[in-house]
């Protein structure tokens, strides 16, 4: 990191010296104006790289404020100068963004921050996503350091958050903040039923839960007929059992696909979800009971060249 | 041999260890014990010759599988429950009560094989049963009609594990307590699956067959279970064709005991049956478990190598004629066929016959037979003509609670029994299916 | 909705201590305005020690006023930084002061609060006792878990119905084991006790060629509880497979297994000999722990 920093510093120094060198004879140009002057030369995008050669050097038509207007027209640079000091580094965009973040972090270090868990959840770009977005291979370590600063900046109290910081952090945020997505609120229908869907292995279960006295029908059959194993029966109504709601609701469910274990545990998920519609506060206990989390494991597919998913054919000498 | 090191903790004998006598075996004189050898040869001596595992003797396996255990000394004694009385089985206020079976009744029921190996009797100190609503409904009606010398012909139906055989057992218990002559065929499957010997009964057209050793066993069970009733009754008919000398005023118990030979089993049984049909005798209760098994063509073959229909066996014919209403019982009788759902072959004839019987009972239009199905068995329809069908239903939460409280008091169910737990188990048991309730509650690890 | 946020946590963030309940009641009775934001240390002077540096006199703040002035009559509200944490905590406490519940638990619930939250063993996938789970999975063959569970249920029911075991003094069970006659009614404890008692404490690891001359060096190694149980069950299963077949049907294996467990408790089982053998080997191999080759490797 320090190497990058010094590198950036060097670039900056060079820029400054160059500016001073060219404007040595004339009055001093402020670097910012120099920037503005050369902004028309796009340097970062490779497409426009060709353009720079054809574009003639545009003399700055901005007159320095408070300078002698009678001075002769100054040519700021003898050659085209890239807008970014990191132009000749391997990752100009990232370096620039990083420098911005560093500067902001230094500048606003004193602003009050709020605890991490109170910050509005932000969808940050991962290293890979960032690389893909800017087309540069940002180094993992540097990106991590940058993100650390960015997240610290993001902790600044929302009331005091400067616009500058918001803009500076923008390149590191995803376009869509999926944390703001809210699940669609499932309604309870006119008959007092709530609906939930659950999946496990290759089974799918749909459950309709209604207030009642604890009767469960699965595919039109009572629980004991639907599941021969007591273990499976227990799995199916596990959420209701643990939250002491087994005698408070009736369940009508459809299950299809897969085997008994899959069906029972898919049903557990479906019933738990439908139960949460009636009583949202049960979500936490149900999660602790293991009924809210979808188990994503599935049968691994068979691959060609393998006997099964992973098994290889026996090695034969000839 | 006492080892030089401790069994449990690898500690060497020391004074401290000697001072702690309780859980560690003490080494009174450690020097007198030879130190063990550390050589590997000591361990290499371990004889590796594996003896072949002996196979169990003939009949041992089945006896093990079918053994019936009616008590468990480890279970706690449940005090405060009354002994079962005949009145309790027909009293609507007694619904939901647990009652213990009197010892004499247990012996009788055991003799006629009313208990089944799948019924979890072995978990409790002594046999208890729940008086449920279905019991009272069924037995109350039955008792009343038998008192009027009517014949009750019923098929007990219901889902799997709902308590059909238990209701059969309660019926038999009621029969014994009401001084009826109780005959029970515990497993109809045994009669048709070619498991026991069979023989042609001479001079019968169409030809009939009997199960000599099975009937002999049945006869002996019948005699010893109904000893009290049978020994009071005196022979009325002539039995000259029977072996042995029957004196004029021999009791029916003597008649039942007259032979030990399988070949005479059927004639004796038949003679006893005829005696019981005489007016003035005690009412008969004839029960059969696994009714659907005898409603098909059996696996036995006749001398002409044709498969024999189950109704061509003398014993099943006796039952089927009684069930179908062909036999006249002057003293009243209860003919009860219990269906089984655990191991039954689906049979369209039985289904349709029961459907028709149900409709007739409810005075609804009788459903027609499927015109496109040609394999209906006419004899099945004849056998089930006019029977009543009694559907056993799930138990209520109240009944479930009293049952679970009994289990908890026995120490078998180790949980608090309250409304929540009862309701939970009731739901897990498919909304109160009795057998499932047992499975759900009585096993520590789930099945 | 019952959130994770504990009101007490919120209170703690205030860095004040609320007054004792007694005083709270007094305050209500006198209908004095309820000020939450007051340092609670004031009523806790009894436990404070006088400063040792001075000449034993009371601190100046208390010396003159203690008798004359009632400390509670003139509360001086203290200002806290108006950040959200304090605001929330104060709002909660004011809610309590107004006679309401600390937080409305009932929100989002139709049938009242749960009597207890699901615990560690209430997870869908961890519903059986640990030992039972492990043993069941060890009984499993060809991935047929439900068959293994059925066997397990039969084993436990067999333990329940068989007569109480007679523990042999030669083969003591775990210290602190429940009396033998109580075991059948708690079959899980029965099974656990048998397995834990007969489980070896160590295993012998042989390090190839370490003893010199191509000979293996045998080193005793302690095992974790789960490992020990596994070994014990494997031994019991070996003994079971050598038994004579008892009956036919589903319960045959379970019956044999249950009998072996009873034999273990009663000290009749051959598994005890295996355990003894391993322990003897372990005691003998203790010397190898200081073997130069091993020490060299450890460095």
Q: What fold name stands as the CATH topology of the largest domain in chain A? A: Ribosomal Protein S5, domain 2
List the chains of the largest interface with their residue counts: B-C, 42 and 48 residues
- Round the mean pLDDT of chain B to the nearest integer and report it: 86
**Shape assignment of chain A:** elongated
Which bin fits the share of residues in helices of chain B? 25-40%
Calculate Rg of chain B over CA atoms: 28 Å
Secondary structure topology:
The complex is a heterotrimer of chains A (318), B (447) and C (299).
Chain A (H helix, E strand, L loop, with lengths): L1 H21 L8 H7 L11 H6 L37 H16 L19 H8 L5 H15 L8 H7 L24 E7 L2 E9 L4 E3 L2 E2 H4 L3 H7 L1 H5 L6 E8 L3 H19 L4 H6 L30
Parallel strand pairs in A: 3-5
Antiparallel strand pairs in A: 1-2, 2-5, 3-4
Chain B lengths: L14 H5 L20 H5 L15 H7 L30 E4 L2 H9 L16 E4 L1 H15 L3 E8 L5 H14 L3 E5 L3 H4 L6 E3 L6 E3 L1 H14 L1 H4 L21 H5 L8 H12 L7 E6 L7 E5 L5 E3 L4 H11 L8 E6 L9 H14 L16 H6 L4 E5 L4 H13 L9 H10 L5 H9 L5
Parallel strand pairs in B: 3-10, 3-11, 4-7, 7-10
Antiparallel strand pairs in B: 1-2, 5-6, 8-9
Helix pairs in contact in B: 4-8, 5-6, 8-11, 15-16
Chain C lengths: L6 H6 L8 H10 L29 H4 L1 H4 L15 H14 L32 H10 L5 H17 L25 H12 L3 E11 L2 E8 L2 H17 L9 H16 L4 H15 L6 H7 L1
Antiparallel strand pairs in C: 1-2
Protein name (chain B): Small ribosomal subunit protein mS29
Subcellular location (chain B): Mitochondrion
GO molecular function (chain B): structural constituent of ribosome
What labels describe this entry?
heterotrimer; B: 447 residues; alpha/beta; 3 domains; five-stranded parallel sheet; 17 helices; disordered N terminus; C: mainly alpha; two-stranded antiparallel sheet; 12 helices; mitochondrion (chain C)
Give a summary of the structure in a few sentences:
The complex is a heterotrimer of chains A (318), B (447) and C (299). Chain A has 318 residues and is an alpha+beta fold.
Written account of the structure:
The complex is a heterotrimer of chains A (318), B (447) and C (299). Helices cover 38% and strands 9% of the residues of chain A. Chain A is α+β, with helices and mostly antiparallel strands and 318 residues long. In chain A, α4 packs parallel to α6 (140-154). In chain B, β5 (199-201) and β6 form a beta hairpin. With 299 residues, chain C is mostly helical. In chain C, a hairpin with a 2-residue loop joins β1 (202-212) and β2. Chain B binds chain C through residues 3, 5, 7-10, 22-25, 36, 38, 43, 46, 50, 53-56, 60-65, 69, 72-76, 122-123, 411-412, 414, 442-447, and chain C through 128, 132, 136, 146, 149-150, 152-153, 156-157, 160-164, 169-172, 174-176, 184-188, 201-202, 242-249, 251-252, 255, 276-277, 279-284.
């Amino acid at each position: 990191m320090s190497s990058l920093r010094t590198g950036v510093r060097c670039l900056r120094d060079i820029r400054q010296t160059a500016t001073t060198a060219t404007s040595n004879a004339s009055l001093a140009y402020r670097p910012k104006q120099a920037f503005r002057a050369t902004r028309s030369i796009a340097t970062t995008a490779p497409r426009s790289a060709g353009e720079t050669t054809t574009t003639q050097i545009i003399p700055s038509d901005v007159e320095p404020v408070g300078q002698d207007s009678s001075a002769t027209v100054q040519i700021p640079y003898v050659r085209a100068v890239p807008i970014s000091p990191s132009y000749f580094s391997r990752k100009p965009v990232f370096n620039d963004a990083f420098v911005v973040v560093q500067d902001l972090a230094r500048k606003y270090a004193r602003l009050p921050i709020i605890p991490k868990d109170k910050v509005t959840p932000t969808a940050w770009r991962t290293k890979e996503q960032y690389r893909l977005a800017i087309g540069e291979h940002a180094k993992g370590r540097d990106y991590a350091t940058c993100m650390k600063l960015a997240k610290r900046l993001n902790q600044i109290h929302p009331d005091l958050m400067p616009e500058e910081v918001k803009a500076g952090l923008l390149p590191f945020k995803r376009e869509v903040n999926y944390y703001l997505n809210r699940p669609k609120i499932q309604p309870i229908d006119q008959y007092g039923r709530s609906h939930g869907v659950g999946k496990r292995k290759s089974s799918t279960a749909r459950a309709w839960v209604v207030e009642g006295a604890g009767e469960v029908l699965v595919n039109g059959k009572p629980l004991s007929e639907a599941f021969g194993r007591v273990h499976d029966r227990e799995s199916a109504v596990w959420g209701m059992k643990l939250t002491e709601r087994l005698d408070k609701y009736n369940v009508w469910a459809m299950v299809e696909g897969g085997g008994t274990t899959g069906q029972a545990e898919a049903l557990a998920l479906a019933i738990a979800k439908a139960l949460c519609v009636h009583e949202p506060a049960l979500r936490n206990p149900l999660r602790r009971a293991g009924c809210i989390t979808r188990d994503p494991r599935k049968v691994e597919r068979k691959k060609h060249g393998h006997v099964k998913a992973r098994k290889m054919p026996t090695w034969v000498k000839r | 041999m006492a080892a030089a090191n401790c069994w449990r903790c690898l500690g060497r004998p020391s004074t401290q260890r000697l001072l702690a006598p309780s859980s560690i075996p003490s080494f009174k004189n450690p020097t007198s014990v030879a130190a063990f050898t550390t050589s590997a040869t000591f361990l290499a001596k371990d004889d590796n010759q594996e003896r072949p595992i002996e196979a169990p003797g003939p009949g041992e396996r089945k006896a093990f599988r079918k053994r019936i255990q009616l008590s468990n000394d480890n279970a706690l004694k449940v005090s405060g429950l009354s002994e079962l009385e005949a009145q309790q089985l027909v009293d609507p206020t007694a619904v939901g009560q647990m009652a213990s079976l009197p010892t004499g009744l247990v012996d009788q029921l055991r003799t006629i094989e009313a208990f089944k190996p799948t019924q979890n009797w072995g978990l409790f100190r002594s046999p208890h049963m729940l008086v449920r609503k279905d019991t009272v409904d069924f037995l109350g009606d039955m008792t009343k009609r038998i008192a009027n010398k009517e014949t009750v012909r019923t098929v007990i139906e219901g889902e799997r594990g709902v308590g059909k055989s238990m209701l059969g057992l309660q019926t038999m218990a009621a029969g014994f307590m009401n001084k009826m002559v109780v005959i029970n065929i515990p497993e109809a499957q045994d009669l048709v699956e070619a498991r026991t010997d069979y023989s042609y009964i001479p001079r019968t057209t169409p030809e009939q067959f009997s199960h000599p050793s099975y009937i002999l066993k049945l006869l002996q069970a019948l005699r010893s279970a109904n000893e009290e009733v049978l020994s009071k009754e005196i022979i009325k008919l002539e039995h000259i064709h029977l072996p042995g000398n029957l004196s004029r005023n021999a009791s029916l118990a003597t008649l039942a005991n007259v032979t030990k030979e399988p070949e005479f089993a059927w004639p004796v049984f038949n003679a006893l049956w005829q005696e019981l049909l005489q007016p003035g005798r005690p009412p008969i209760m004839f029960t059969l478990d696994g009714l659907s098994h005898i409603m098909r063509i059996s696996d036995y073959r006749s001398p002409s190598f044709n498969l024999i229909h189950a109704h061509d066996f003398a014993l099943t014919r006796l039952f089927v004629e009684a069930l179908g209403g062909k036999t006249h019982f002057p003293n009243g009788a209860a003919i009860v066929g219990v269906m089984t759902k655990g191991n039954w072959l689906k049979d369209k004839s039985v289904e349709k016959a029961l459907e028709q019987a149900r409709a007739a009972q409810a005075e609804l239009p009788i459903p027609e037979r499927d015109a496109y199905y040609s394999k209906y068995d006419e004899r099945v329809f004849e056998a089930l003509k006019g029977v009543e069908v009694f559907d056993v239903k799930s138990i209520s939460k109240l009944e479930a609670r009293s049952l679970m409280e009994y289990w908890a008091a026995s120490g078998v169910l180790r949980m608090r029994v309250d409304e929540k737990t009862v309701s939970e188990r009731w739901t897990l048991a498919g909304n109160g299916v009795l057998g499932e309730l047992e499975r759900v509650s009585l096993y520590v690890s789930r099945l | 909705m019952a959130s994770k946020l504990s009101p007490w946590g919120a209170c703690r963030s205030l860095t004040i201590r609320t007054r004792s309940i007694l005083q709270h009641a007094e305050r209500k009775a006198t209908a004095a305005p309820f000020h939450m934001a007051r340092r609670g240390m004031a009523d806790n002077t009894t436990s404070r020690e006088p400063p040792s540096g001075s000449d034993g006199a009371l601190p100046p703040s208390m010396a003159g006023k203690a008798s004359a002035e009632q400390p509670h009559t003139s509360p001086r509200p203290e200002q806290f930084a108006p950040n959200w944490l304090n605001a929330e905590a104060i709002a909660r406490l004011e809610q309590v002061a107004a006679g309401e519940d600390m937080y409305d638990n009932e929100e989002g619930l139709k049938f009242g609060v749960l009597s207890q939250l699901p615990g560690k063993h209430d997870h869908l996938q961890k519903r059986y006792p640990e030992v039972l789970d492990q043993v069941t999975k060890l009984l499993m063959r060809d991935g047929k878990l439900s068959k293994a569970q059925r066997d397990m249920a039969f084993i436990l029911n067999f333990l329940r119905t068989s007569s109480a075991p007679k523990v042999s003094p030669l083969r003591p069970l775990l210290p602190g084991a429940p009396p033998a006659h109580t075991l059948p009614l708690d079959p899980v404890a029965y099974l656990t006790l048998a397995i834990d008692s007969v489980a070896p404490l160590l295993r012998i690891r042989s390090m190839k060629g370490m003893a010199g001359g191509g000979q293996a060096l045998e080193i005793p190694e302690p095992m974790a509880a789960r490992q020990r149980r596994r070994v014990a069950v494997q031994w019991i299963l070996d003994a079971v497979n050598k038994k004579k077949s008892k009956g036919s049907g589903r319960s045959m294996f379970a019956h044999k297994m249950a009998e072996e467990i009873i034999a273990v408790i009663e000290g009749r089982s051959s598994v005890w000999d295996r355990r003894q053998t391993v322990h003897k080997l372990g005691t003998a191999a203790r010397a190898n722990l200081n073997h130069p080759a091993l020490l060299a490797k450890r460095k």
